[in-house]
């Protein structure tokens, strides 16, 4: 009995292998092989497109954009004239060549007139700056400083 089962098993195995080989070789012939003939560069004729029909000209004439930005574009305009005040005309008193005595006289004169001033020092030379909105007050100061032989001048500036 074992011989019969073994004989049937080998027969089915043999028939299966033959069927697989038959299908393999049968469908292998269905492939299409294309071969091209070699043409030397001398025999080839290059086709040159006229300039009017080139793709570059067509792209240059097109107005459509076929792309999109990865972010949204935003245009903002801020009217700063509302926030920045207009320039104001003011006057500045400049005192040149000041020594210790002149500084003392100028400070006393400005203190008597109740005028704000700025005293600064650049390279061991003191500078006094007085800013005012009216020129009349600064003319009074220059007239009083002439009594002490202190030269000063009024300069117009825009703030």
Topology:
Layout: H1 2-28, H2 55-61, E1 89-95, H3 100-112, E2 118-122, E3 125-132, H4 135-146, E4 152-158
Antiparallel strand pairs: 1-3, 1-4, 2-3
In short:
With 159 residues, this protein is α+β, with helices and mostly antiparallel strands. The protein contains four helices and four strands, in the order ααβαββαβ.
Would you kindly provide a written description of the structure presented here, covering whatever features stand out?
A four-stranded antiparallel sheet has the order 2-3-1-4, with helices on one face. The chain has a domain at 89-158: Alpha-Beta Plaits (2-Layer Sandwich), CATH 3.30.70.1070. It contains four helices and four strands, in the order ααβαββαβ. It is rod-shaped. 37% of the residues lie in helices and 17% in strands. With 159 residues, the chain is an alpha+beta fold. It has helices at 2-28, 55-61, 100-112, 135-146, and strands spanning 89-95, 118-122, 125-132, 152-158. The mean pLDDT is 78.
Determine the CATH topology of the domain at 89-158: Alpha-Beta Plaits
Mean pLDDT figure? 78
Number of separate strands: 4
Bin the strand percentage.
15-25%
Helical region count? Answer: 4
One letter per element, helices H and strands E, the order comes to HHEHEEHE
Shape: rod-shaped
Distance between the termini: 122 Å
**Residues in helix, %:** 25-40%
Most strands sheet:
4 strands, antiparallel
Radius of gyration: 52 Å
CATH superfamily of the domain at 89-158: Sporulation related repeat
Based on the coordinates given, report the CATH architecture of the domain at 89-158.
Answer: 2-Layer Sandwich
Which structural class matches the secondary elements? alpha+beta
Catalogue the unreliable spans.
none
* CATH top level class name of the domain at 89-158: Alpha Beta
Strand order of the largest sheet: 2-3-1-4
